[in-house]
Amino acid sequence: MNLKVPSFILAALLLGACGMVSNGTVHDSAEIPLADVRTVRVPERAEVEFVESGTTIRAEMAKTLAFAGHPPRRMSIRETAKNMGVATRMEGDLMELATYGEWDSQIEGGAFIELTLVVPKHISVVRGTSLSGPDSVAQGWDNEDADPRGDPDTYGYVPTKPAKVWTAYPGE
Asked: Could you say which of 9, 74, 99, 131 is the most buried, measured as most Cβ atoms within 10 Å of its Cβ?
């Protein structure tokens, strides 16, 4: 069956319902140094691939904007992706790795990260909750430098940086 989708539906999907949103996906990666890390706690939904050796974790991120809302001005995946990434914090020899910058309007979509981590085999990996999505512990609501409320560039949906005790790796 050859189904033809009308162009106005495709435009609504790609540009959001109001035409002010340029949805899509961008791919970024970040190299995270391991130093004295023995164990890394990662988001439950992250995909993990192991390599024989290495001194870094490579975070491969597919950052997606899928929003059909009505922002006060144009928004695009290229701009939105700059405020998304992974962040780490240390607790002894345990590194916690979480996402930041994801949000969900609960009605009209949001911004999301699909995460693949490439980890050396000598590092122990455990899964943790609250390390990804809109409720990630790395969201920077406590960081006054990242507070989006009143910021016309972020529309108030999400902080532009991770929380204070987290080190950001937004990607390259």
From this structure: 99
